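Page 42, continued from yesterday. The earlier attempt failed because a stray header line got pasted into the input along with the sequence. Redoing it now with the clean sequence only.
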Amino acid sequence: MKTIKNSMLIIAFTMLSVLIFNSCGSSSTKEKQSTEKEVTEVQYTCPMHSEVVSDKPGNCPKCGMALVEKK
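This time it went through. Structure tokens are written below.
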């Protein structure tokens, strides 16, 4: 009977540890994603001339097409 109680305590402790560890990891992942979005600058490029890159919207100097947001 004592070994069953010990086994159940070990299982419960393990499950609790896994839950705590996973919940801590998910919040730091969300923080990293929001920080990466803040740091990342939006770049625009020409659909016809991928070498043309700008940090603001406008027209391509080569063909005059509207620059689109680079993904």
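Notes: The chain has two domains: 1-38, 41-71.
Reminder to self: strip header lines before submitting.
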